[in-house]
Amino acid sequence: MAYQIVASTCTACGACEFECPNGAIRMKGDIFIVDSGKCTECDGAHDSPQCAAVCPVDGTCIPL
């Protein structure tokens, strides 16, 4: 499974991009997106998905 970023609530703050241990998050247009092929939900690197942990807007970084 992977995470996704809800475009309508993404503020494009960039906090998630640098926290992703897999480099699965990148800017596309005005928002950030998650490459589901690279996203491992931080398994093996952290106890929980870091994109969701650092996002300032609850419910923006969610499981696919």
Give the averaged pLDDT, no decimals. Answer: 95
**Number of beta strands:** 4
- Number of separate structural domains: 1
Major β-sheet strand ordering: 1-4
CATH-defined architecture: 2-Layer Sandwich
Quickly count the helices: 2
Helical coverage, percent range: 10-25%
CATH topology: Alpha-Beta Plaits
Specify the CATH class: Alpha Beta
Counting helices, strands and paired strands, the structural category is alpha+beta
Question: Could you explain how this protein is built, in words?
Answer:
The chain is an alpha+beta fold. The protein has a single domain (3-63), classed as Alpha-Beta Plaits. 16% of the residues lie in helices and 22% in strands. It contains 2 helices and 4 strands, in the order E-H-E-E-H-E. The strands form 2 sheets. Strands 1-4 form a two-stranded antiparallel sheet. A hairpin with a 2-residue loop joins strand 2 and strand 3. The model has no long low-confidence stretch (mean pLDDT 95).
